[in-house]
Design goal:
199 residues; mainly beta
Length: 199
């Protein structure tokens, strides 16, 4: 067994391009859940294939584009172990085995904050009040929704940002026109915001 290359085809929700890297000395295959992984094992001899165990599943390795390589594919669904052995064209099995770990890279939860105004803000009934919202996500913000209620009434919701993903940060300003809402002195508006990612 010589060099080992790992190719990642990420699921659509990540918006990440495919990539290939050489398996490092730590021997860890780390990817988001649902990622298609292809492992290519190089050898000093022409190969007929081999076998690869990923957790409880046993997979066949097939000859690669290079006659001195073998490849196998699997989907990352959980953290587990890999063990692979290659077989040359004369049916000799490798004395050494590839051993590696699969780690599911977590999709972090989105973060959101209302930057302004503060928790207790005051305004005259004719004011226009900008509500500034910041949202962040490791894979990309898909939407931001602003909810508001008046004097304890049910929440009115409005989607103030929509995206197919890919943007790790979204900054949104939604202006509340208090005169247009018909507010009077003493009225109270409660508001909060939510966000979700592409997953």
């Amino acid at each position: 067994i010589g060099a080992v290359n790992v190719s990642y085809t990420y699921p659509a929700y990540t918006k990440l391009p495919s990539r290939t890297r050489q398996l490092g000395p730590e021997s860890i295959v780390r990817a988001y859940e649902g990622t298609q992984v292809e492992i290519t094992i190089a050898s000093n001899r022409p190969l007929a294939g081999g076998t690869m165990r990923v957790g409880a599943d046993s997979l066949d390795l097939r000859p690669g584009n290079d006659p001195q390589s073998a490849t196998g594919k699997f989907t990352v669904n959980q953290s587990t172990d890999i063990e692979a052995r290659i077989v040359d064209v004369e049916n000799n099995q490798s004395s050494d085995a590839l051993r590696a770990k699969v780690e599911v890279q977590p999709d972090e939860k989105s973060r959101i904050a209302i930057v302004s105004p503060g928790r207790q803000a005051f305004a005259i009934p004719s004011a226009e009040v900008p509500i500034e919202i910041e949202a962040q996500d490791d894979l990309g913000v898909a939407n931001v929704t602003l909810f508001r209620g008046l004097n304890g009434s049910g929440d009115f919701s409005k989607t103030v940002f929509n995206s197919d993903g890919g943007e790790e940060q979204a900054n949104v300003v939604e202006v509340l026109d208090l005169a247009d809402l018909g507010l009077r002195p003493g009225d109270v508006i409660d508001y909060y915001a939510s966000t979700s990612d592409t997953h």
